[in-house]
Amino acid sequence: MAKQVPKLNLAMIGSGFMGRAHSNAFHQAGRFFDIPYELRLRIVCGRKPETVEDFARRWGWEEVQTDWQSVVTRKDVDVVDIGVPNHLHAAIAIEAAKAGKIVLCEKPLAMNLPEAKRMAEAARKVPTLVWFNYRRVPAIALAKQLVDEGKIGKPYHYRATYLQSWGGDPERAGVWRFRKADAGSGVMGDLLSHSLDLALLLNGKIAEVSSLLETFVPNREVDDAVVLLARFANGSIGSFEATRFATGCRNRNAFEIHGSQGAIRFNLEDLNRLEVFERSDATEVQGSHNVLVTGPGHPYVGRFWPPGHIVGYEHTFIATLADFLECLARQGTFHANFDDAVEVHQVLEAVENSARSKSWRNVSTTADRTSSVA
Amino acid sequence: MAKQVPKLNLAMIGSGFMGRAHSNAFHQAGRFFDIPYELRLRIVCGRKPETVEDFARRWGWEEVQTDWQSVVTRKDVDVVDIGVPNHLHAAIAIEAAKAGKIVLCEKPLAMNLPEAKRMAEAARKVPTLVWFNYRRVPAIALAKQLVDEGKIGKPYHYRATYLQSWGGDPERAGVWRFRKADAGSGVMGDLLSHSLDLALLLNGKIAEVSSLLETFVPNREVDDAVVLLARFANGSIGSFEATRFATGCRNRNAFEIHGSQGAIRFNLEDLNRLEVFERSDATEVQGSHNVLVTGPGHPYVGRFWPPGHIVGYEHTFIATLADFLECLARQGTFHANFDDAVEVHQVLEAVENSARSKSWRNVSTTADRTSSVA
Amino acid sequence: MAKQVPKLNLAMIGSGFMGRAHSNAFHQAGRFFDIPYELRLRIVCGRKPETVEDFARRWGWEEVQTDWQSVVTRKDVDVVDIGVPNHLHAAIAIEAAKAGKIVLCEKPLAMNLPEAKRMAEAARKVPTLVWFNYRRVPAIALAKQLVDEGKIGKPYHYRATYLQSWGGDPERAGVWRFRKADAGSGVMGDLLSHSLDLALLLNGKIAEVSSLLETFVPNREVDDAVVLLARFANGSIGSFEATRFATGCRNRNAFEIHGSQGAIRFNLEDLNRLEVFERSDATEVQGSHNVLVTGPGHPYVGRFWPPGHIVGYEHTFIATLADFLECLARQGTFHANFDDAVEVHQVLEAVENSARSKSWRNVSTTADRTSSVA
Amino acid sequence: MAKQVPKLNLAMIGSGFMGRAHSNAFHQAGRFFDIPYELRLRIVCGRKPETVEDFARRWGWEEVQTDWQSVVTRKDVDVVDIGVPNHLHAAIAIEAAKAGKIVLCEKPLAMNLPEAKRMAEAARKVPTLVWFNYRRVPAIALAKQLVDEGKIGKPYHYRATYLQSWGGDPERAGVWRFRKADAGSGVMGDLLSHSLDLALLLNGKIAEVSSLLETFVPNREVDDAVVLLARFANGSIGSFEATRFATGCRNRNAFEIHGSQGAIRFNLEDLNRLEVFERSDATEVQGSHNVLVTGPGHPYVGRFWPPGHIVGYEHTFIATLADFLECLARQGTFHANFDDAVEVHQVLEAVENSARSKSWRNVSTTADRTSSVA
């Protein structure tokens, strides 16, 4: 006999690319994981009635709305999920949090650090999630596990790139991601935020940065590319690059860590793989292990398909949601939450200031935030 | 306003690994594709009531049954989907076909060629599908397209391997796939059938074979490995290998074609990639193109996620089902159907006879079948 | 003070591609290895006086001749090295051996098995070398070492391909390798012989074969491609393919071994790499090690350049020669010698007979040869 | 009949790793290339008589000396080749140049920019070569050709890493490369100089840099790692990293360029490959071409072995020397010469100043040098 599980009523604001990815996760989480809730896809909210009706039908939402204000305070909503352009995140999240809703939000959390802090403050008493979904790529979860077990040893180098190539595509010239008022920034919020979140997860806090921002397209309002140097609190050094002008690369979100005992390499375009170098291997067979992270012994993958049967992009959202729900049920603290996203914004702010001032900038410490909470 | 679409009531026999993959496809097809039916997951049928109840709850089946006979003739069932051990395929499929149901069946279709022919005969008047799902890997669909466009030119070589490594795993020693009465064969039906189906799709009919079967585990009833040479009707030559003893390979379903104008390479463990060599490239930059088959310009992928966002194993079932439903609605002939699977069994029979007799064997021609239909 | 080392006077018959590779090795061996002889490049012999004069000047040969008969019996010659078309190997080698010369010969040793046996017989009392140079690719020598140490365990599968693509190149249509009278065979002697030599080295004797020969070019006298199945004496099974019609592949001499404890993969186009899978790795980091075989701990490479600095094609000849000279000095038995090449020809004969008769053929055992010696 | 070619008498100062690489090139250049000189290996000079005697015997030097001063002014010396620790470069090169000798020198040319300028000034009237040998990797020469032909289009991004891992090896803790007085710097001069030379070659002048230097080993006098951002004069942006603490990487000298029309990727550990992306490819087959740069149509490689037969590290020195001699004969200007090395030092100086001052630094322009010459 099935045990009775509590219901969670979901409302999703937004019905674009992320709306699809989230809706899919809402349906699929319970199929692959033993989630402790019954999810009910109550309301999807979008600006254009017809589009959102179609969306609702396809993705199984019960009700359609076009005004988010009315939705986030509804009594029959437990969770508000935000998948709209960046400039709307704060208002929706703060309103929802005030109404006591659980808040899930796309990245980047906010338009800038002060806004991110206000959001985290407002949501201090509700569970939050930020869709830094790549933390739950099985290979990245394995990387985290190896780092935590000391398999990399003392870290020396961290190197991350997030390379896309659609920045000059005339067909996409009008998208909101190029408007400063809508997106806040270009690749910084869109791509670099992902790389920074993973770096903070895998290699800890960043102490200071020196950065360079570039906009290749005349009159474009936001950054097309960013490159930066970083010193981490643990003594390692790193570099980051994010761009929409890396011809030949569709979605190369990649990183490498070199430590005293080993090394790790990952590339999102081949997300079922992790390359792992171990100095403890016999000398004559030392070389990066080409690990197909589909089990056995790997995070999440027992949940999906048998060993050797790969997963895709969407599974990162499914695993993120499943972990969140499990945390929620046992009242644990889920990561990445709004506070984690504030830390990403702290680095982003330092990156922006560094580029503007052409000087090294310290990353403001989380201590600031914590004290402000007390 | 949504157009009204007809309903299709599904019954699925089996609730194991394939039951999961099919159920997932039944739910997901309509989300990623514009399918011309509303699918209703009516009945799932399994032997153990408790297991199947759990399964039904997780995968959203309305009703549970334990006796397939009662299911396949039910008036409220339009489609019977078969995902049980091989020895049960024929009885279920024939019964269902007689009852006028649309029949979907896992591969290998049958225990042997005569049985496959009986099934095809019995199902002559109903639409059928065999889950040779790898035809719908986007990269393989692209390969087919390139072959059809003449990009490979006159084919010289076809080389396929399907390499797994769990054959000696003591924890799996008791599975039905090792019992001759249940599985019919070992890797021949399980793995080689996939490779043959793709070869027939991409390179046409096989004229004759010389093969070798091996069972590494003492007293095992079925083949652990098969290797074979082949002459294709188009004049090219090939080799096939399927094994569960390829240490280091979880699911390396790979093939290569070399022709007068180009070459193609694929590996299921990296299923979003296709390597394409084109002799028409300028001499100094000739080299295999490493194509990330996630669009633009690629089959299916506009259906899933944006370029650079990879798909996984399960999407092959989703795309297979979507294509089938589209065919069904316009009364077209879907492939792979039961007749296509008969062709695979024709080769399998020749392979088995060749290995037993240690001699080359012709593959019986499909003409036989066609005439028998008249 | 340098120790006095004996001189070895060399004569080389042939001044083509192999003449270059051998001459280079004669010069370079003493630079990278501590060879126990002083090599003197006495005579190079070629048909066209002008060509061979140029060659001699470039490659540092003291004297030029155009008639091999006069050369192989010269008192001031200790070593006769044969790098001419296949049909000339036997006469030269037998004459040289009768004159008591050390004989080095290109592969394939002979036009056919009987000739190879005659050559081995004639050379029974002199040291011999056959230029199966790939045995001394550092990565292959490492593979041999790993096999011998049991790192692969009981072997299950052996898979070799030697893929080239120049078979249809009109500019090369007139080369001697396409004339049966000069070459004896096509890819069998040219490419498959290499693959077989490595297989015999790494996986032991081949018991029986089933093969297929194909000539794609009308009126061509020799085989353009060969594919074959093999049963090894150790119980493993294998396949081999050699072709000049593998569009996209310049020189892909590749093999894989899967055993109970591990696996190995090699590709000559990337000859400084060996992929090594070890089942003894911790489950979560199991995956092929991508080993850059340039030391430390690797065969030969301490001889060449520091770790990470790769070697090329020519170094395989250098290492082969150095090993031979070291054996010679201590009167050890060098491999591959004429007897080893006879074993390759035993397989080649079985391959040819199998293809002609379309049946499995046993490989004649070396016992035959040994008894014939008694 | 051979044409008479002039003789060039060589003296080499140094008999270590670079002494081997250069000696090898001196012997091999004339075998693979049609060089317009007869090279005579006259004198090798080293500190320890016994070591250098052994070296001379092995590498075919006629005479041994231990005092470079006496050598560089010798009448029977035309060319002085410098392969000693960095702090000795200037004195030897200047003395040799004053004596009218042709001067070849290892990189980094000097201990710092002023010294480099003095050297270039002193050598203004003699032909010079700096052993930036990687310019002549066939794949890099192909990259240069593609860039010059506009195949990359307008460049956006340049990304270079030079990753080694021996920095913490206790067995090598005492080498001169870690002593500031001998080496001048750590990875900056040793590794970064190579990356910068290639960047200047392939992507033109660097306008400004922001950098970070790190020494991981306590009390080590030189930099273990450097990371930097760069703005190029052509408007593209870039990053560089050089380190001896990249666990898992033996000699990964790699770079990537992304431009409006294409992209290029190279890695020295796989030096016979170039990855080339071309936007002009048909959409559905766009992907990096995996080019095995061994001909046909590729730079140098017709000189070495047939297509598909790879070359190694040492061939970069051979091709460099051959190009130099060809320039010398026609009194052309060879690159990289001392002036090119000065440009590298200009960047290195800016890098060092940037790291010390923690600020962006302009790279002093070559105009300075040119005017100082007038």
How many strand segments of chain A? 15
Strand order of the largest sheet of chain A: 14-13-12-11-7-10-9-8-15
Number of helices of chain A: 11
- The appropriate CATH architecture of the largest domain in chain A is 2-Layer Sandwich
Predict the CATH topology of the largest domain in chain A. Answer: Dihydrodipicolinate Reductase, domain 2
Termini of chain A, distance in Å?
Answer: 46 Å
Largest sheet of chain A: 9 strands, mixed
> What oligomeric state is this?
homotetramer
Helix-strand pattern of chain A: EHEHEHEHEHEHEHHEEEEEEEHHEH
Unreliable stretches of chain A (pLDDT < 50, length at least 5) are 368-374
Q: Write down the Rg of chain A.
A: 21 Å
Proportion of residues in β-strands of chain A? 15-25%
Can you tell me the overall shape of chain A?
globular
CATH superfamily of the largest domain in chain A: Dihydrodipicolinate Reductase, domain 2
Strand pairing plus helix content of chain A: what structural class?
A: alpha/beta
Largest interface: A-D, 39 and 39 residues
- Overall pLDDT confidence of chain A: 95
What is the top-level CATH class of the largest domain in chain A?
Answer: Alpha Beta
Give the domain tally of chain A.
Answer: 2
The proportion of residues forming helix of chain A, as a percent range, comes to 25-40%
